[in-house]
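Same chain as my last thread, 94 residues:
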Amino acid sequence: MTARSSTRGEEAVKTLLSDPQLRTAKALSQDGGLTTITFNSLDISDHASIQKFKDLIKKDHPDGIDVLVNNAGIAMEGFSKSRKLSHIINNMWN
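reply #2:
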């Protein structure tokens, strides 16, 4: 999981790790499942943050990742043409 705010990201991970439905389903590694949830800082508006995260992913997952879920939070600034282009450039080509 990523977020610009470490506080919010770490709190979100804690919430997911204590989710009763995930615990009952035994989806999480702590309950015998296959899912591990971790937090890493990422600010998609900061090139250095993107590069740092990209390097971390390449190091920790040299064969790639299986799932990527993109949060709709990027829409908080609206869906203007320039915002869409910025999002695509930051997330797809960096």
